[in-house]
């Protein structure tokens, strides 16, 4: 690492960060390769300015770092990340590739830190970097804060169990024993939804009941009498229809019975006529046959 006094005020990307206790900084296009400056431009610069509360400091940890160049051999001619520990300090230069098992962690001197990522027109692009920063206090009297078990930093209580090692890459105390908290929250969220749904249903029922009660109370006496008369008239018309239907059924049955009686009477008369006709016709005797034969012989 080499120290320089370079300060770049004009930037193509980056941001000013304040009033928060944790954040993430990545190179342009991360996790894809960063790109160089636009055509006809000599360089491209990204600046990040981090400011936390007074009497607090900034803990910066690089989770991944892959920038073309080699600090120990040929330096960082194509791409470089410069970092200032405070507003008045000299920067350090970072380039090359960080091995996964190696930790790159930096602590600011005060409540300010600055990073500048500078790309020359000769840059060909690599994956870049991803860094997490956390507002910490080196005072072990952590009122309303979480005391890290190994690094002894004080961090915000809400940073516990956020799946980020805010105490540092070698201190996992802020992420230990988080299964119980997660499991409890998994049960608490559905229970909260259920309770909310029940309360909403009760409120709707209460409003409907009040509205119905108000409607019943506002019905006037004349309107009530009119409704009763209408109801009686409907019942009367229904009874008339039923009586008319019953009368027609009875009349139809009576006509049917009369037709049956007439048909039976006609059948009886027919049978009686046949009987008299058969009885009036006498059978031929033997004497009549003989008499007829004698006449034929003559």
Automatic annotation (TrEMBL):
Alphabetized UniProt keyword annotations: Disulfide bond, Membrane, Transmembrane, Transmembrane helix
Annotated InterPro entries: CUB_dom (IPR000859), LDL_receptor-like_sf (IPR036055), LDrepeatLR_classA_rpt (IPR002172), Non-NMDA_GluR_Accessory (IPR053207), Sperma_CUB_dom_sf (IPR035914)
Recorded GO CC terms: plasma membrane
Transmembrane segments: 187-208
Record domain CUB: where: 13-136
Source domain of life: Eukaryota
Biased composition annotated in UniProt, kind: Low complexity: 254-267
Region feature Disordered, mapped onto this chain: 247-298
Protein name, UniProt field: CUB domain-containing protein
């Amino acid at each position: 690492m080499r120290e320089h006094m370079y300060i770049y005020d004009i930037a193509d990307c980056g941001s000013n960060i304040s009033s928060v206790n944790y954040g993430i900084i990545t190179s342009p296009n991360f996790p894809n390769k960063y790109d160089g400056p636009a055509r006809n431009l000599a360089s491209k610069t990204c600046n990040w300015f981090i400011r936390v509360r007074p009497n607090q400091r900034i803990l910066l940890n690089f989770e991944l770092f892959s920038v073309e160049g080699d600090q120990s051999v040929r330096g960082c001619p194509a791409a470089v990340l410069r970092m200032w520990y405070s507003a008045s300090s000299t920067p350090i230069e970072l380039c090359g590739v960080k091995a996964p098992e190696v930790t790159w962690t930096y602590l600011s001197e005060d409540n300010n830190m600055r990073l500048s990522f500078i790309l020359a027109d000769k840059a060909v692009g690599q994956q870049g970097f991803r860094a997490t920063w956390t507002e910490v206090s080196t005072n072990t009297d952590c009122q309303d804060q979480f005391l890290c078990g190994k690094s002894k930093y004080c961090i915000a209580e809400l940073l516990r169990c956020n799946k980020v090692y805010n105490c540092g890459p070698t201190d996992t105390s802020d992420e230990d024993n988080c299964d119980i908290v997660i499991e409890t929250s998994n049960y608490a969220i559905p229970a909260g939804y259920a309770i909310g749904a029940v309360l909403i249903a009760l409120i709707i029922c209460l409003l409907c009941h009040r509205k119905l009660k108000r409607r019943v109370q506002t019905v006037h006496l004349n309107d009530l009498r009119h409704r009763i008369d209408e109801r009686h008239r409907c019942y009367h018309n229904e009874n008339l229809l039923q009586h008319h239907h019953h009368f027609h059924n009875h009349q139809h049955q009576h006509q049917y019975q009369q037709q049956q009686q007439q048909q039976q009477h006609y059948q009886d008369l027919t049978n009686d006529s046949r009987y008299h006709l058969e009885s009036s016709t006498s059978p031929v005797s033997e004497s009549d046959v003989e008499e007829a034969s004698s006449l034929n012989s003559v």
